[in-house]
Write a structure and sequence with these properties.
Layout lengths: L9 E4 L6 E3 L6 E2 L9 E8 L3 E5 L4 E5 L3 E3 L3
Length: 73
């Protein structure tokens, strides 16, 4: 059931993690309320541990692929 994602792909949040980790060089934990289900972002990088850096309007966060899906064009 794993999807293949590409850098530059637009994704949509389908579930919120218990916390958000920023995609900064020194990551910080943030509350999940900074995003909402349905928010769209762009994948900017793949990180170790099955995490993806996704750029949203507010900031970039590291998310596992179970929390988002590809946006159909």
């Amino acid at each position: 059931m794993s999807q293949e994602f590409n850098i530059g792909a637009t994704v949509r949040i389908v579930a919120l993690p218990p916390y958000l980790k920023t995609a900064d060089p020194m990551p910080m934990l943030r509350p999940p309320t900074l995003l909402e289900i349905g928010a769209q972002g762009i994948i900017t990088d793949r990180k170790p541990g099955n995490y993806w850096a996704v750029k949203f309007d507010r900031s970039s966060f590291l998310l596992e692929d179970r929390y988002f899906e590809l946006v159909s064009i």
